[in-house]
Design goal:
- By secondary structure, the chain is α/β, with parallel strands linked by helices.
- The chain is built from 12 helices and 13 strands.
- The strands form 2 sheets. The chain has an 8-stranded mixed β-sheet with strand order 7-8-6-5-9-10-13-12, with helices on both faces. A 5-stranded antiparallel β-sheet has the order 1-2-3-4-11, with no helix packed on it.
- The two termini are about 30 Å apart.
Length: about 325
Amino acid sequence: MTDATNLFTSVPSILAGGLTGIRCAACHNDEDNEWVIVKGPEATRFRFSCCASCGTLMLENPEQALSSYTDTYYSFTDTRGSRIERVATRFRNRFERTGAGTLGRLISKIWPGPRHRSIRPLVAEQILPSFDKTADILDVGCGAGDWLKELRNEGFSSLAGCDPFLERDFDEKGITLRQGGPERFDKTFDVITAHHSFEHEAKGEALLASMRDQLSDEGVLIIRIPLAASYGWEKYGGHWVQLDPPYHACLYSVAGMTTLASRVGLELIKTVHDSTHFMVTGSEAHVAGLRSHTQQLANKRLPQKVFSRRRANMIANLCNMLGTADQAAFYFRKST
């Protein structure tokens, strides 16, 4: 991975901004951290503090995004598609979760489902051997709860979610949603997940400690996040699709995330790199000037017009194998 001291000669589409003097949120290093200036849409510019030790990126003003988390933000809209798409989703999700089903396998190759794939190791790799459809599951940063609804459709019966930007608390057919964080619940959970929501929180250490407190003694915490110090960042720099300012307040490296978790009393069990074609197609779309929001790019199928999805999948799969991909799932337990 890129040496932070040579960052500005090796990473494209960024400008040097001098030393920050800011302590890294992940590893607490405060020496030689530098500003990374990124050009955004409509001539906007964003500054990230880049840790010289672990490579974690911290957005200077994460509050810029607060007014954007409305009911039009993609995680608060119904993205489950038409009836046919929902049926296809169920076949794919069953395959991703269990490894069973030929049709689901074929659909997964075209339309992967990393959220469901992330829970397969709980039983398959004995991370949580007792895991079944009665397990208490909490999704942090759940948005409108689409993933929880998919789990409910597959027979899971004890589901909860929380998000600080929900308009209100509500319960819906076996799903409990609360405005706020994990501390809103007076129970512990067998599985807590955060699927590409943790990077939106500027105070990541406090949120991680809160998730640990709500985890049962034998429970598993799964956090899926974009990764700094990765192929996506080093190849595309300011055009990296998962940089996504001002929404992503802190982009951790593998080393940074591991250090942060250890500090709040969590033990790393497993790391799975799970990038898809979007690492390449979304970034290439940005290079081509298509700088709409990441999920809008995916939904509108714009990236395929500027880069072959098949070739992009090959690159992503190779990066996953090498451990250099731009996103990963981290599995934690409480430290003993």
